[in-house]
Amino acid sequence: MSYDRPPGLPIVDAKTPAVLVPARPVTRDEVAGLCAEVRALLEATPGAGVVLVEIVGPGPPGLGTVDLLARLQLTARRTGGGRIRLRDPTPALRALLDLVGLRFEMEGQVEQREPALGVQEEVEPGEPAV
Known about the structure:
By secondary structure, this protein is of the alpha/beta class. Helices cover 33% and strands 10% of the residues. Strands 1-2-3-4 form a four-stranded parallel sheet, with helices on one face. α1 (28-44) runs parallel beside α2. The longest helix has 17 residues, at 28-44. The radius of gyration is 18 Å and the shape is globular.
């Protein structure tokens, strides 16, 4: 079941980032429309500066998904220095982004220099503290 989007821009709270959920697979014709949507969301929420992107759909992500994310990030940066943040990316998408050398903010990602939950570091006796 599908429905038409209401006309105009969505009502977005300036403190809560807007969310964009493109369904996969995205065709080349749809990329320009999604970039325009990111631009509109960032212009509608000038204080936020972030658009959450959630990639959903069947199957593993491919290079089309990487191309889409790179274009969305470029559009966001060109729109007042905004950025996109990935929400709950799959391990396959994380691995693919690492493989091609693209870095994105990710929700739920462990902060730098903090060990992931459940990970314990082993220290040998006599080693200096790091």
